[in-house]
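Structure in, sequence out. Go:
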């Protein structure tokens, strides 16, 4: 990871409730622009959960989302836990299962199997246990809304020991891992309503060329949560259009390799041409990488590999349960557009290829060769 900007350095402020909680867990806290491979992050025993783990505190999260990476040895399982923050889990290695049961329920339980590249959401405030049923260590990441919840309530007993049962999120009589439903979201994007995607790498993704020729995107909505996301795929040796949005969108790479550029929108559409090269952050990525664009920062993704790139984004912006802060700035003229997939010339936040900084394209061509 490389950066010419000191966005990660902030003036001293007292630690937030979430930051104090992280410190109290006595596991490593990695603060960075991005992680090359989550499997390589140093992890130590997390006594409260019963596994090895490390927090990943990406600069672009900005108190909106949190993240940790954990591992379970063969036959190992976590301690039972529940909490009032949402959680989306991505499996990077191993096979296993998650056992889920509602507060106050003792016998009615749901067991859902997972494997490498499974993606699933844990229903709000339900008890759960993660279990490795395979012969090799399991490694997984978890993206959560813990920072917002803890900072708002700053009461651990309320967050971790609340017995309210959110019946719309989970029913032990229903099939939690049942058939996924495809539909067109209100934003005009193809969407999938499900609680688990067994294999994101082999899931068919819908064509949507607003980010580039032959680009694909499918939104996912899980566990009736506000934390949602999408799968984005684009061709080998191709780039996507730069765009910006609210903070907290955690990006996980599942296929190919390349890099992304990020720069504050205040630096303009053409940061190199306008003399703001020192504000451009370049993040190298490959399968297993993660990073998070800061608030209102343009970011543009470049696939330099010979395989299609696959990116899993976990973010606010659910169509079922939208959060206003995730929708971008709205005016009477732009209230009906999807900002991140609409040209900045039409009121959105996306930079068309023909007006992007010339150096951005020249640097990319120097790596991948001529692009038709």
């Amino acid at each position: 990871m490389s950066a010419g900007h000191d966005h990660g350095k902030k003036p001293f402020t007292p630690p937030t409730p979430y930051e104090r909680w992280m410190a109290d867990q006595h596991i490593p806290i990695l603060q960075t622009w991005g992680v090359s491979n989550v499997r390589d992050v140093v992890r130590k025993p997390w006594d409260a959960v019963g596994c090895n783990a490390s927090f990943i505190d990406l600069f672009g999260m900005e108190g909106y989302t949190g993240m940790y990476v954990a591992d379970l040895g063969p036959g190992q399982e976590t301690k039972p836990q529940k909490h009032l923050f949402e959680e989306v889990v991505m499996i990077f290695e191993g096979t296993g299962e998650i056992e889920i049961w509602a507060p106050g329920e003792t016998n009615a339980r749901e067991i859902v199997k997972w494997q490498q590249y499974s993606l699933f959401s844990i229903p709000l405030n339900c008890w759960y246990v993660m279990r490795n049923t395979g012969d090799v260590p399991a490694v997984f990441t978890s993206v959560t809304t813990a920072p917002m919840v803890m900072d708002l309530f700053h009461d651990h007993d309320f967050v971790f020991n609340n017995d309210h049962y959110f019946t719309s999120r989970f029913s032990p009589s229903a099939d939690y891992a049942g058939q996924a439903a495809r539909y067109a979201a209100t934003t005009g994007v193809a969407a999938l309503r499900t609680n688990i995607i067994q294999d994101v790498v082999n899931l068919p993704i819908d064509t949507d060329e607003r980010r580039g020729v032959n680009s694909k995107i499918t939104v996912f909505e899980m566990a009736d949560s506000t934390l949602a996301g999408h799968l984005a795929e684009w061709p080998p040796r191709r780039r996507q259009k730069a765009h910006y949005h609210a903070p907290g969108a955690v990006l996980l790479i599942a296929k190919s390799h390349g890099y992304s550029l990020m720069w504050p929108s205040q630096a303009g559409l053409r940061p190199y041409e306008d003399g703001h090269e020192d504000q451009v952050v370049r993040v190298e990525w490959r399968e297993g990488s993660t990073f998070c664009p800061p608030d209102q920062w343009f970011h543009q993704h470049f696939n330099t590999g010979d395989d299609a790139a696959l990116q899993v984004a976990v973010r606010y912006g659910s169509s079922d349960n939208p959060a206003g802060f995730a929708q971008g700035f709205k005016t009477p003229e732009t209230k009906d557009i999807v900002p991140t997939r609409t040209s900045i010339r039409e009121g959105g936040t996306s930079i068309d290829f023909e007006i992007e900084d010339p150096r951005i394209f020249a640097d990319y061509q120097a790596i991948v060769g001529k692009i038709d």
